[in-house]
Amino acid sequence: MSFLVCVHLPRFPLTVAVDGREDLLGAPVALAPVPGGVQRIGEVSPAAQAAGVRPGLSLGEALARCPALRLLPPDPVAAERRWQALVERLEAIGAAVEASGEPGAVEPDPGTAWFQAATIRRLHGGTLDGVLAATRAAIGLPVRIGVGPTRFLARVAAGRARSRRAMVLPAAAPPRLGAAPVGGLPVALRDEPVATLAVRPDLAPLVEPLERLGIGTLGALAGLSRGALGERFGRPGIVVHELLHGVEPPLRPRERREPIDAELRLPEAASGEQLRHALGVLVDRVLAHPRRRHRPLRAVLLQAALVERGTWQERVVLREAMADPQRIRLALGLRLGRLPSPAERLALRVEALGAPLPADVPLLGGEDPVRRARLQEAVRQVREAAGHEGALRVVEVDPGSRIAERRMALAPFEVG
């Protein structure tokens, strides 16, 4: 069986926000809510967790539970850059890494990465211990490492591991005579509390209902049928059943690519027209970047370093891949209004690119599949802008009629 290695840095965004002031981690601190977003706190320190504060609580409830709680401004830009550097170190030992915080990842916050152990075992002595030693040396920080047959189980093992000793989960053992079947769940995790599901943010809302129903361990949860979980919790319940039985999509290693980005220092108290002009300069620089190679932009990160301590970033997924600077400025300009305070630097980073298209291609030219795709896209955009009746075609009904209105009729335009 192929095993996955999970590298987990606990409270990574909070550690970055602390910025070397390690004494703060001994006090009840938490990441403040993102400006302009939902007023819920982020990662919390161990002291705050001991006081009953947990990530995701509303700001009022967190302060009510712990009046001494200190809020730190989040620094998502620094966290993302440091995490990218650590992922590149893992890739330097030969690993094909799937990392949290990437577009489409299950875990939105950086700090967790997975890779196949078997693919690099021969590079590091032919043993799993050699792979784990190389991983720890590449990270160079106190890190928790878990090894398991699936992504979820390896992440749970990493949460239980010590900072200097990895936890390796064996394959699931067959159940004892008379015991409820637990599928692909290893014996070492059958007594884990259901709160462990919270390692997946999309499954965290299931923890409280399961505890109210008297299901306290992963072993008891794995003994329930797929139908029962699906009927009670819908799609999340089915996902939980699949995870506990070792059913997961394959690993999706990130593509190693050179970044395409641009940065600009702003004058003091820049706002309004100055910000829009700076955004236009950044868009022009990104579109002129040689590594873009005529590919349109699909998703970008708009980042800012605030005059006050902290950073801000907004991920923008464009409705369609485009390379028109005017349309890109219009899409990004709306997000600039969400800046929580004046910024001293503004940056634009490309996260995803579309397929390259040749320049100056006529709409109705080219091969039939290409022409059909362009027409469908054109009709969709017209209807979105002008309504369903924005794209119609003329149909002959009674060409010989003396009444002009009966000769032709309008019908919805469909691309054949």
The end-to-end span amounts to: 48 Å
Radius of gyration: 27 Å
Please provide the ordered H/E string of secondary-structure elements. EHEHHEHEEHEHEHHHHEHEEHEHEHE
Q: Mean pLDDT score, rounded? A: 83
* Sheet with most strands: strand arrangement: 4-5-1-6-7
So what's the overall shape? globular
Report the count of strand segments: 13
Number of helices: 14
- The helix content is 25-40%
Number of domain modules: 3
- Relative strand content: 15-25%
CATH fold node name of the largest domain: Alpha-Beta Plaits
List the helices and strands and how they pair.
Elements: E1 4-8, H1 12-18, E2 29-31, H2 46-50, H3 59-65, E3 70-72, H4 76-92, E4 98-99, E5 112-116, H5 128-139, E6 144-148, H6 151-160, E7 167-168, H7 207-212, H8 218-222, H9 226-233, H10 235-244, E8 261-265, H11 273-287, E9 297-306, E10 311-322, H12 325-336, E11 343-353, H13 368-386, E12 392-396, H14 404-407, E13 408-412
Parallel strand pairs: 2-3, 6-7
Antiparallel strand pairs: 1-5, 1-6, 4-5, 8-11, 9-10, 9-11, 12-13
Helix pairs in contact: 1-4, 9-10, 11-12
Describe this structure in words.
With 416 residues, this protein is of the alpha+beta class. It has three domains: 1-19 and 75-254, Alpha-Beta Plaits, CATH 3.30.70; 261-353, Dna Ligase, domain 1 (2-Layer Sandwich), CATH 3.30.1490.100; 368-412, no CATH class. Helix content is 33%, strand content 18%. It has a five-stranded mixed β-sheet with strand order 4-5-1-6-7, sandwiched between helices. Strands 8-11-9-10 form a four-stranded antiparallel β-sheet, with helices on both faces. The chain has a two-stranded parallel ribbon with strand order 2-3. A hairpin with a 4-residue loop joins strand 9 and strand 10 (311-322). The longest helix has 19 residues, at 368-386.
